[in-house]
Amino acid sequence: xxxxxxxxxxxxxxxxxxxxxxxxxxxxxxxxxxxxxxxxxxxxxxxxxxxxxxxxxxxxxxxxxxxxxxxxxxxxxxxxxx
Length: 82
Known about the structure:
By secondary structure, the protein is α+β, with helices and mostly antiparallel strands. It contains two helices and four strands, in the order βαββαβ. Strand 2 (26-30) and strand 3 (36-43) form a beta hairpin.
């Protein structure tokens, strides 16, 4: 699984939603009081992620497969007493 991401002005949120509505896998993260947002699209293949990157810029990263329920996944943030 690959993740394409890009920072964008919040004024373009509607445009990003329309671009990726049909494909699914898009996440738009906004922080109140900020003028930027992070657009992320989760892609099953590197080729699809590169296609989006060529069209819109941004960056790519590969998600490593993990079993988040296993002890090897590590302790949650804050440890046991959090």
